[in-house]
Amino acid sequence: MKRILTLTVNPALDKSTSVSGVVPYKKLRCEVPIYEPGGGGINVSRAIKKLGGSSISIYLSGGPTGAYMKTLLDMEGIVQKIRVIQEWTRENLAVTDTINEQQFRFGMPGPKVQDAEWQGVLKELQLLLREDDYLVASGSLALNIPDDFYARVAKIVRDKKAKLVLDTSGEALDKGAKAGVFLLKPNLGELSSLCGVSSITTQNLEPLALKFLKEHNCTAMVVSMGPKGAMLVTAKGIEHILAPTVHHVSSIGAGDSMVAGMVLRLANGDSFRNMAKYGVACGSAATMTPGTQLCVKEDVDGLYHWMTTQKTIF
């Protein structure tokens, strides 16, 4: 198995709770909160661990929230490479209204990262990466980190002859993707932004995805489509992966679980087709868990078995 490293430059201590009704101007009595380490790459490392794999989690950390995150990750057995920063790691909040079964998610912007701090991450990557490693760069950029940061990461990965898996959004995605990556996982909105169109329809989805892949240094793309599954795009063509129908509880962590499953399969030498199917199974399994919890291996195995043994009847 190839090594997997994950990178998170704007991690978050995720707090989730529930309350019987959300109304304004009233003190709401919540249930005891659950704290979990979060942020794109950190969640990918946690999901990989749940699936029986291993990775090295590289992330920026500061203050008491950062220290508590380290403690939680230690408890999960996650191998960590921490870059300490001056400002505190952010907290995010998810509140479920148990009366209406609605979930409210509040994401904070995060700390302002000094130039020397984010530049230190790039130097760390140059020392850590080896040929054929998989690096998962996932999540938003913290304040003051330039929007070409992932493009700089892509160059380092390319120089080291490693493979970059990128999962982010906005300008960071646009510049990072166009700098060259091994695998992209955009959703439909992110793909439309990458392709410079206002929206994507059934008619132009496949041509746009193939055009982007052809014009940029990208080996494969998996377009996540929520409950509809995903679309795998490679130079050999396109395949639509249908998602299994599950009891939906929470969508938090579905994308990170999907990435974790895909990179784990790739690191084990599996095909793009099986990678994409396993990723969809992981993402679907994550929606079956409450709050900020990630996929459960038993659920993933059951869904993947169903996806790979069912027979389609026309």
UniProtKB/TrEMBL annotation:
The keyword Transferase applies. Residues 35-297 form the Carbohydrate kinase PfkB domain. Keywords: ATP-binding, Kinase, Nucleotide-binding, Transferase. Belongs to the carbohydrate kinase PfkB family. This is 1-phosphofructokinase family hexose kinase. It comes from Sediminicola arcticus. The lineage of its organism: Bacteria, Pseudomonadati, Bacteroidota, Flavobacteriia, Flavobacteriales.
